[in-house]
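Researcher: Here's my situation. A collaborator sent me these components and asked whether they could plausibly form a single complex. I don't have experimental data yet, so a predicted model of the whole assembly would be a useful starting point for our discussion.
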Amino acid sequence: MAKKVALLQGNEVCAHAAVYAGAQFFGGYPITPSTEVAEVLSVELPKVGGKFIQMEDEIAAMASVIGASLTGAKSITATSGPGVSLKQELIGYACIAEIPCVIVNVMRGGPSTGMPTGPGQSDVQQARWGTHGDHAAIALAPSSCQEIFSETVRAFNLAEKYRMPVQVLYDEIVGHMRERIEFPEPGELEVIDRAKPTVAPEQYKPYDTSFGDVPPLAAFGSEYRFHVTGLNKAQDGFPTTKAELVDDEQRRQIRKVENETARADIEKNEEYLTEDAEIIVFAYGSIARSARYAVNELRKEGIKAGLFRPITLWPFPEKRVAALAKQAKAIVVAEMNLGQMVHEVERVSKGACTIAGVFRVDGEPINPGQIMDKVKEVR
Amino acid sequence: MAYDYEKSIRPGKLPHIWCPGCGHGIAMKGLIRAMDTCGLDKNNTAIVSGIGCASRLPGYMDYCTLHTAHGRAAAFATGVKMAKPEMNVIVMGGDGDGTAIGGNHFIHACRRNIDMTYVIFNNFIYGMTGGQFSPCTPTGDKASTTPYGNPDPIFDISKLAIGAGATFVARTTAFHATQIDKLIAEGIKHKGMSVIEVLDDCPTTYGRRNKFRSVVDMMKRLKEIAVPVAAASKMTAEQLEGKVLTGVLYKEDKPEYCEQYAKVIAKAQGRAV
Ligand SMILES: Cc1ncc(C[n+]2csc(CCOP(=O)(O)OP(=O)(O)O)c2C)c(N)n1
Ligand code: SF4
Ligand SMILES: [Mg+2]
């Protein structure tokens, strides 16, 4: 049977992918350029018996998503920069209480209201460090409509598997761009559900590390009764101020994402002509499309350029970027902000090669010509 | 007959954090009796709170308990209830939590008339942070941030709830301990958003700054200001000056939110509504 094909906008694709991944709950608050995700889910979720609610603000939306997820429902919210700023306290709550959920951030510029209808990539560090306190972060950055589908499904999978909030970050260009997309058949993409406890209810501890760094999460309304708090807590879920217990829990919550095996599972990059590249262009989201074009043009001119495109932005692909820094003469980081991921590239390169940036915050995309000029400059 | 509270308390979780004389314990006992009389299934009942002294309550209760962030209890609870409408959802917290930082979530939960029971422990102060004034600190009173007397007017929480659309609203005080469970039980049985305001006391941060010589004095004040709704109808405006009405202040039957959403699902699935 031929696959279902459609011409869809990125935001619409995201909504359909959420349903494919098994989403049962959306709580949101309208904000450009993300609103179509909510609009489509208000149509699609009730069809599959799911719930859609428009809350009174983004804080409430985030709260409702965490509450719904605790009952076992896969939950999602979608917003843009100002909305993500409002959600930050509760993103931290989802981190410490370890509640799976997906937050879509269709990025515009900023700070503040900025340019609501223009694209930006200036929330990439917010996705890492936006909420207070030490915590791990997972953020995915698709660059096409088809990839919005697969990455939204993957975001749910990672949220469920690692028991934490996962952000899908794409800029307004990808969110509003229309492309042909092929709907995967049911079962074609992997769909992961959170691990459920198998112990007897009276033995259940919501943060029981005897099951590894990601303890199984029971659902409210099941035979398991437990306590959830945003305070530092012991493995039984109850607040503690005991130094060693607090320290153990905090470190475990970071380790569960940053250990070697988890990183290998979570990290995902695309590399194009990097094998023999002397200059690496580092770009993500819509800008990676300009970068790919630039690389092709540069190759035609005999310049050995290659593209490194992180699809997983966080955790940052430290090892691979460090290796590329040793191989290349220079890495050119192109992003629609005034230099954010470039700090990571600099950090892990440890001075092994020249790092240069092409930055833009005027609401216009970075074009291939700008990237080519920079590559020629640093060559 | 002595009531058995132990069966609702989580083994090993007492003593609680509250100060001697704190009214939150009286309100909690009322809540326990109410939940028990209603026969709520522990596995199928969530107690959701925000942050504050009052909001520490869920940790002591043997139910599905969710201690959220300051002010956000109603919004978390909305997610729980929407996702699993068959669960009983009790929301609770302080006056500051519910009407200052959480005021927006509070009024919108009322507006939706979602089937939850929200018990507000109103001690007229931010207890946990050391006695700063709340939206319910009486005008003129002293708080750690109103050293010259509070210039702010107050919220009447019950009126606010009625205005926002809650369909069961009641008020009582920690002095009227046996009324607490009756009103909460009525609220639990009511289909829709129920708000029960329990006026209680914080001797530690409010009482001592406002010339209450003892907890007994604070209780006496609660006794003096409370006027049952029935009695109030026979009193003049002057007589009612400085009083608060107690009992069931409002009750109405209106479509409940999750039931309304069930109709949305039916329509989306092309089934008859
Ligand atoms: C976002 C945020 N802001 C401020 C606080 C500090 N804070 C904790 S409890 C509280 C006030 C609690 O007062 P109330 O809700 O009346 O409860 P009570 O302690 O009186 O029972 C405040 C301001 C916080 N925890 N989180
Ligand atoms: S500070 Fe006030 S509200 Fe908090 S526990 Fe003590 S008496 Fe109760
Ligand atoms: Mg208070």
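Model: Some features of this prediction you could bring to your collaborator: Residues B 18-19, 22, 24, 53, 123, 127-128, 202-205 surround iron/sulfur cluster (ligand 2) (CB under 6 Å). Chain B touches chain A through 40 residues (CB under 8 Å).
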